[in-house]
């Protein structure tokens, strides 16, 4: 939870006035609106909020600062009945309204359920329009239970589509609620825990860019690290209490249920590490913990690390990590066959084929008494073919079809470096 003194009572400053940086929490559909309303109780009043839905009654009950209704021509202000194609078609027709709401926004926290209806059909459109406007988009999206076969399949498709547009996507499967609350937890307690997970993620990012700390990270650094399209994302947290709070927080982080879900990445090209603790937080301990976290998640070069001291926390420590694989940069080079010169250096000498004696006898009879008038064509190797063109239609295959060091998907005359004279 953000510090209470971050926004003094009666102070009407919003995020844009604070740092010239405008942040916006957007809730899409019923699940997204519920999450946005829940954040109102976690002291997120300093962030602007917007909820989007076709259901007028759901919008009217929301506590969000701004509301956007769309699709009246299709639904007459009622729901979509789970038809996400209807919701997508409706928002595309009225996307100019949404563009106006996104003007000047630098950071978007996108909350939506992907089981169908408005959340499934509209969320990726919102992410796309926000990115087009230059915003950094972090999405937190609940997913249906796995036994909801059709809705779960829809959610998987929506998740893949959303990853093409958002900078980081944190899936929150309903199946994980059973692990979070324990066997005796009520349904309300489990769903409240899911809301707290969203709160922890948004809180960590906001503290990094809005609050001064022991190790600060500005928004430009965060934007650079998460500049690409998101692949699989990891999100986890841990809390420790007492003199050994940091070590206890590390242990809780590594067993966090959010890090052991099927959709979670096992490694991160980009990793955000945020540690929040009391005044006794040691620099050496911070350095050791950050290195251990980086190794645990096999982080690449892009690591964003921030640490804040809160005098009210005493010996308590909180650790939050957010990581993603990057689909928009450093794409691996296609697996192509080496050029002709390299083929000769790595392949064995082609087997010699002995000519048939019968054919040799016929040729000798026909050519008897005749003198050769020309020399055989000289067969030369060449190296003018580009690597990317070597494998032709087989270039998209994940691996080569190798036999005795030769790629059989490459035409023989290319493998052997034979120049064909026409």
What does this structure look like?
The protein is α/β, with parallel strands linked by helices. Among the domains are: 14-166, Rossmann fold (3-Layer(aba) Sandwich), CATH 3.40.50.1440; 332-358 and 374-422, no CATH class. The protein is 37% helix and 18% strand. The protein contains 16 helices and twelve strands. The strands form three sheets. It has a six-stranded parallel β-sheet, with helices on both faces. A four-stranded mixed β-sheet has the order 7-10-8-9, sandwiched between helices. Strand 11 and strand 12 form a beta hairpin. Helix 2 (29-39) crosses helix 7, helix 5 (84-93) runs parallel beside helix 7 (117-132) and helix 12 packs parallel to helix 13.
Radius of gyration: 30 Å
What is the percentage of strand-forming residues? 15-25%
What is the H-and-E element order? HEHEHEHHHEHEHEHHHEHEHEEHHEEH
Mean pLDDT: 75
| Broad CATH class of the domain at 14-166 | Alpha Beta
* Helical coverage, percent range: 25-40%
- The tally of beta strands, per DSSP, is 12
CATH topology of the domain at 14-166: Rossmann fold
Sequence stretches where pLDDT stays below 50 over 5 or more residues: 1-15, 329-351, 368-386
The biggest beta sheet reads: 6 strands, parallel
Considering the protein shown, what is the CATH homologous superfamily of the domain at 14-166?
Tubulin/FtsZ, GTPase domain
């Amino acid at each position: 939870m953000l510090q209470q003194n971050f926004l003094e009572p009666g102070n009407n400053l919003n995020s844009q006035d604070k740092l010239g940086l405008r942040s916006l929490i957007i809730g899409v559909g019923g699940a997204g609106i519920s999450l946005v309303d829940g954040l109102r109780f976690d002291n997120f009043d300093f962030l602007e909020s917007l909820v989007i839905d076709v259901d007028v009654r759901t919008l009217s009950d929301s506590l969000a600062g701004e509301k956007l209704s769309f699709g009246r021509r299709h639904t007459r202000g009622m729901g979509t009945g789970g038809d996400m194609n209807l919701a997508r078609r409706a928002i595309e027709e009225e996307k100019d309204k949404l563009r106006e709401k996104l003007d000047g926004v630098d950071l978007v926290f996108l909350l939506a359920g992907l089981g169908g209806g408005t959340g499934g059909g509209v969320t990726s459109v919102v992410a796309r329009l926000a990115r087009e406007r230059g915003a950094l988009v972090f999405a937190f999206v609940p997913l249906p239970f796995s036994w909801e076969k059709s809705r779960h399949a829809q959610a998987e498709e929506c998740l893949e589509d959303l990853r093409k547009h958002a900078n980081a996507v944190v899936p929150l499967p309903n199946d994980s609620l059973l692990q979070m609350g324990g066997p005796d937890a009520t349904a309300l307690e489990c769903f409240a825990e899911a809301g707290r997970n969203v709160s922890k993620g948004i809180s960590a990012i906001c503290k990094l860019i809005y609050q001064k700390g022991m190790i600060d990270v500005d928004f430009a650094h965060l934007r650079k690290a998460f500049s690409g399209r998101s692949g699989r994302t990891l999100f986890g947290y841990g809390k420790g209490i007492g003199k050994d709070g940091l070590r206890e927080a590390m242990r809780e982080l590594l067993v966090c249920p959010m890090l052991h879900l099927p959709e979670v990445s096992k490694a991160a090209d980009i990793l955000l590490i945020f540690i929040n603790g009391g005044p006794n937080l040691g620099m050496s301990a911070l350095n050791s913990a950050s290195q251990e976290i980086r190794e645990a998640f096999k982080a690449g070069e892009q690591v964003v690390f921030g640490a804040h001291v809160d005098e009210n926390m005493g010996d308590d420590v909180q650790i939050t990590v957010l990581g993603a694989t990057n689909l928009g940069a450093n794409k691996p080079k296609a697996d192509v066959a080496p050029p002709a010169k390299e083929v000769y250096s790595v392949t064995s000498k082609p087997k010699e084929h002995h000519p048939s004696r019968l054919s040799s006898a016929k040729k000798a009879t026909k050519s008897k008494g005749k003198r050769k008038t020309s020399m055989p064509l000289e067969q030369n190797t060449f190296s003018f073919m580009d690597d990317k063109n070597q494998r032709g239609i087989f270039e998209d295959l994940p691996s080569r079809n190798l036999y005795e060091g030769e790629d059989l998907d490459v035409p023989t005359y290319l493998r052997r470096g034979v120049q064909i004279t026409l």
